[in-house]
From TrEMBL:
SUPFAM superfamilies, A to Z: Phoshotransferase/anion transport protein (SSF55804)
PANTHER family: ANION EXCHANGE PROTEIN (PTHR11453), ELECTROGENIC SODIUM BICARBONATE COTRANSPORTER 1 (PTHR11453:SF10)
One function term, GO molecular function aspect: solute:inorganic anion antiporter activity
Entry's family note: Belongs to the anion exchanger (TC 2.A.31) family.
Keywords, ordered alphabetically: Cell membrane, Ion transport, Membrane, Sodium, Sodium transport, Symport, Transmembrane, Transmembrane helix, Transport
Protein name per the record: Anion exchange protein
Membrane topology recorded in Swiss-Prot or TrEMBL: Multi-pass membrane protein
Source organism per UniProt: Oreochromis niloticus
Region span, Disordered: 1-33, 190-219, 367-386
Biological role stated in the UniProt entry: Electrogenic sodium/bicarbonate cotransporter with a Na(+):HCO3(-) stoichiometry varying from 1:2 to 1:3. May regulate bicarbonate influx/efflux at the basolateral membrane of cells and regulate intracellular pH.
A GO BP entry: regulation of intracellular pH
Transmembrane portions of the chain: 425-447, 459-488, 508-526, 674-692, 722-741, 762-786, 822-841, 848-867, 899-930
GO cellular component: basolateral plasma membrane
Biased composition (Basic and acidic residues): 12-28
Length: 1013
């Protein structure tokens, strides 16, 4: 048996409407639309159906259930649920105790053709008004009797059969008492054969008492408690398919019913949702398999998004047939000898959008995306940011800032209540630990560079103050402020310069900060952030990849430094184990030192000797350690690497746990949301259990300046000559470029289209608050802070939202990011309170936090096209993925583009690792110039695919849609095959078509129609 799968390139049936006009009558009568309707091609009909303007909500999601009429215990008949659909098919396994995995429904072509025949000849009742299944059955049987399809004497038998009990998969057993079995009739035929001699009244009374007692008009407990409801949206409706064989029918009884309003039909459906559609098929004995396949065919059709819409909007039988024709045009047949129909096809990870199929008929064009076509490069920049309202240059004083405030103010309240989700808690804990670790690391390096004029405590206070204010008032609260490498290099150079020239470092720094803030405010007032539109993917990915590599490099660098501090004894020889010892001996200055003289004053034992002292006591009292094992600390380095790599691996694994097969959906989601926190807690527990003295997180426990030579306020005058205050403007220019580039490139990355942010950006407002915070930090002697790329990306990743009611087998769809201010505010409040949480934080091993650093660096590289292109260098062509730029750009050009980008990245890396790192932001700005120069090396066609800010998956979907539309447009022709209609060649009716109608509804082949596509 052949089986059918989805296909995208079958041709439409050709029709010839112009022949109708040629045979028009001469009496001038206008066309009767009801006569013309059967002559409209399926493609045109679908275009009319889907193209109708409808101001109401879209049709709801359908839950489709297939029930089959089966014998129970060899006696009575009842309806048994055998399969269900939302998007994919789930079957009741042969054992009857469980559902199968969701899989793609594979249909026989013969069943689809039989279904089409049944729809052509069966009863079609659209917008039926009924409140119960009994009424529906009554109206359907009456309709069939009126049309001569059903004998009147079979009405009650059909009704009795359709009103039998429905047993769903939620009911695991079918135990009935002997009394119940005795009261029921084994089958409909046996019931009526025993009543042949009875009066009609008696027959009707027995029918009513038996059928209505079996079918429940109210939802049962199993329905109300069914957890499957979580997979359905709130407005979901049901489509019930009833198929079975009976021995009292000679021809099939077929009906397709659409109710005017969805109605709860009691226990008819597995889940308590109202029913909108019913498909009924009862036929003679001997074709149970065929009926089953036809039932699967209509159920699969109802789960198809295009036919689903057609079924809701259909006006008559021909509309439904057109929907089936469209479905048949989209399937592909597999030869039976080359594929096993019993193999269940796993649902794909990504599904093609049904919108492209619908748009082929509605004529709607998707919005143009920048860089999508080769000729869409009029700016010469190839893939720059689309100029939205956030980046428009107003030409007014503070015009952009005012628009940012107006744009963000309506969302200010929602920025707080949108955070009411458990996911926010996991984001707070994750980003807090990353921020604390960064603050401690940066504070320690800054203390070394400035002789503790700025240290760890200043780093904590500055992080807490600036971060909390920024997240509360800035335009994009998802951005996380932190210290950066170029700022550290600038501080080191500035301190050395001040020390060599006798300047007051903090006062000089204050005036540089004031000048830099003034320059930043000038950039805000003049809408200078519009320059962001020239940051293309080339610049963004170069910058973000560099910062990610730095995070990864620093994580390993810290672990190697730890290994040097706690070395491994590589010369260990088990044969010399008796010689490995370490003893405390008197030092050169304490050989004659009387240790017993200190026993009373220090608490040492009376009989204490140098050999009995601990390492700490030995060093305290001037002793020295002697022995071959004194320089080594067993297990610390190895244990630290176990914690480091274990935290990273566990974080990556738990983050992907959402797509695993274990535990219910909500549990998997919860584990994924708290992945990093769980990994940290797990390996903190491992460290405590093993008991090795690994390095721990040390947090200042006193709230006071690191250096006693300074306070919490820096006086602006008195420490330096007056001309220094003016000269500070020169280094302030460097700081301004540094701040502007770091802040705005990170903001561009945060506001990427693929993040689906709905509340808008605030480039001008962000820079405004960064400038204000620089002033505050300068007066308080705190470090300067700017947007941190990697931590901001990690913040966004921890707040990503997905659909809650995805169908079984369907991958959850990314909805966007939980845009709010609460997580950032709480992160920085906790950072400020860390001074008081030192007794708790001291139990966290530093290797665990280094593992978190490694995770953030690697995770932020996900989705970076530059990394994908690097992998292509090592990948044979036949194994390369289906990427949009591989379809259109020669591979050697792709590799050349990647090589240039990697060369720029290497140059920036070398620059950042030297004293010249202070000009790093200027070199990042130079990437824009390099990108501009690439216009002379690459064609605009190539750049539109390699350097576009539009996400890869969106571009590929857009192209597939355009290809499909072009094929469909080419296949829709102006010919009608009249052999499809019940007219002889010499007896074709002539119909007068008015010009008004031709203008309102252009027929196929009309050139005006082509312009719509």
């Amino acid at each position: 048996m052949s089986s059918c799968l989805r296909k995208s390139n079958h041709k439409e049936k050709r029709e010839r409407p112009e022949q109708i006009a040629e045979g028009s009558k001469s009496d001038g009568e206008n066309v009767d639309v009801s006569v013309l309707k059967p002559l409209i091609s399926p493609a045109e009909r679908i275009r009319f159906i889907l193209g109708e303007e409808d101001d109401g909500p879209p049709p709801p999601q359908l839950f489709t259930e297939l029930d089959e009429l089966l014998e129970v215990d060899g006696q009575e008949m009842e309806w048994k649920e055998t399969a269900r659909w939302i998007k994919f098919e789930e079957k009741v396994e042969k054992g009857g105790e469980r559902w199968s995995k969701p899989h793609v429904a594979t249909l026989s072509l013969h069943s689809l053709m039989e279904l089409k025949t049944f729809i052509e000849k069966g009863t079609i009742m659209l917008d039926l008004e009924a409140a119960s299944l009994t009424q529906i059955v009554e109206m359907v049987t009456d309709s069939q009797i009126e049309s001569g399809q059903l004998k009147p004497d079979l009405k009650e038998k059909v009704a009795y059969t359709l009103l039998r009990k429905h047993r769903h998969q939620t009911k695991k057993s079918n135990l009935r008492s002997l009394a119940d079995i005795g009261k029921t009739v084994s089958s409909a035929s046996r019931l009526f054969s025993s009543q042949e001699n009875g009066s009609p009244t008696t027959t009707h009374r027995n029918l009513t008492s038996n059928s209505l007692s079996d079918f429940s008009d109210k939802p049962e407990k199993d329905q109300l408690k069914n957890k499957f409801m979580k997979k359905l949206p709130r407005d979901a409706e049901a489509s019930n398919v009833l198929v079975g064989e009976v021995d009292f029918l000679e021809t099939p009884f077929v009906a397709f019913v659409r109710l005017q309003q969805a109605v709860m039909l009691g226990a008819l459906t597995e889940v308590p949702v109202p029913t909108r559609f019913l498909f009924i098929l009862l036929g003679p004995k001997g074709k149970a398999k065929s009926y089953h396949e036809i039932g699967r065919a209509i159920a699969t059709l109802m789960s198809d998004e295009v036919f689903h819409d057609i079924a809701y909007k259909a006006k008559d039988r021909q509309d439904l047939l057109a929907g089936i024709e469209e479905f048949l045009d989209e399937v592909i047949v597999l030869p039976p000898g080359e594929w096993d129909p019993d193999i269940r096809i796993e649902p794909p990870k990504s599904l093609p959008s049904s919108d492209k199929r619908k748009n082929m008929y509605t004529g709607l064009e998707a919005p143009q995306m920048n860089g999508d076509t080769p000729h869409d490069t009029g700016h010469g920049g190839g893939g720059g940011h689309e100029v939205g309202e956030e980046l428009q240059r107003t030409g007014k004083f503070c015009g952009g800032l005012i628009l940012d405030v107006k744009r963000k103010l309506p969302f200010f309240a929602s920025d707080f209540y949108d955070a009411l989700n458990i996911q926010s808690l996991s984001a707070i804990l994750f980003i807090y630990l990353g921020t604390v670790t960064n603050a401690i690391t940066f504070g320690g390096l800054l203390g070394d560079a400035t002789e503790n004029m700025q240290g760890v405590l200043e780093s904590f206070l500055g992080t807490a103050l600036t971060g909390a204010v920024f997240c509360l008032l800035a335009g994009q609260p998802l951005t996380i402020l932190s210290s950066t490498g170029p700022v550290l290099v600038f501080e080191r150079l500035l301190f050395s310069f001040s020390k060599d020239n006798g300047f007051d470092y903090l006062e000089f720094r204050l005036w540089i900060g004031l000048w830099a803030a003034m320059f930043c405010l000038a950039l805000v007032a003049t809408d200078a952030s519009f320059l962001v539109q020239y940051f293309t993917r080339f610049t963004e990915e170069g910058f973000s990849a560099l910062i990610s590599f730095i995070f990864i490099y620093d994580a390993f660098k810290k672990m190697i430094k730890l290994a040097h501090y706690h070395p491994i004894n590589t010369d260990y020889d088990p044969n010399l184990v008796t010689q490995y010892d370490c003893r405390c001996m008197p030092g050169n200055s304490s050989e004659l030192f009387d240790l017993s003289a200190l026993t009373n004053s220090t608490g040492l034992p009376v009989n204490a000797t140098w050999a009995s002292l601990t390492k700490e006591q030995c060093m305290k009292y001037g002793g020295q350690l002697v022995g071959q094992s004194c320089g080594y600390m067993p297990d610390i380095t190895l244990m630290s690497f176990i914690l480091f790599l274990g935290t990273y691996t566990c974080s990556m694994s738990l983050k992907k746990f959402k797509t695993s097969r274990f535990f219910p959906t909500q549990v998997r989601k919860l584990i994924s949301d708290f992945a990093i926190i769980l990994a940290i807690l797990l390996f903190c527990g491992v460290d405590a259990l093993v008991g090795v003295e690994t390095p721990k997180l040390l947090v200042p426990s006193e709230f006071k300046p690191t250096s006693p030579l300074r306070g919490w306020f820096v006086p602006p005058f008195g420490g330096n000559p007056w001309w220094v205050y003016l000269a500070a403007a020169l280094p302030a220019l460097v700081v301004t470029i540094l701040i502007f580039m770091d802040q705005q490139i990170t903001a561009v990355i945060v506001n990427r289209k693929e993040h689906k942010l709905k509340k808008g950006a605030g480039y001008h407002l962000d820079l405004f608050w960064v400038a204000i915070l620089i002033v505050i930090c300068s007066f308080m002697g705190l470090p300067w802070y700017v947007a941190a790329t990697v931590i901001s990306i990690a913040h966004i990743d921890s707040l990503k939202m997905e659909t809650q009611t995805s169908a079984p087998g369907e991958q959850p769809k990314f909805l966007g990011v939980r845009e709010q201010r609460v997580t950032g505010i709480f992160v920085f409040i906790l950072t400020g309170l860390s001074v008081f949480m030192a007794p708790i934080l001291k139990f966290i091993p530093m290797p665990v936090l280094y593992g978190v650093f490694l995770y953030m660096g690697v995770a932020s590289l996900n989705g970076v096209q530059f990394m994908d292109r690097l992998q292509l260098l090592l990948m044979p062509a036949k194994h390369q993925p289906d990427l949009i730029y591989l379809r259109h750009v020669p591979q050697r050009r792709i590799h050349l583009f990647t090589f240039i980008q990697a060369l720029c990245l290497a140059f920036l890396w070398v620059l950042k690792s030297t004293v010249a790192a202070i000009i790093f932001p200027v070199m990042v700005l130079a990437l824009v110039a390099v990108r501009k120069g690439m216009d002379y090396l690459f064609s605009q066609h190539d750049l539109s695919y390699l350097d576009d800010v539009i996400p890869e998956k969106d571009k590929k979907k857009k192209e597939d849609e355009k290809k499909k539309k072009n094929k469909k447009k080419g296949s829709i022709d102006s010919e009608i095959e009249f052999s499809d209609y019940p007219y002889h060649a010499n007896n074709i009716p002539s119909i007068k078509i008015s010009m008004d109608m031709m203008e309102q509804e252009p027929m196929l082949g009309d050139k005006s129609l082509d312009s719509e596509y």
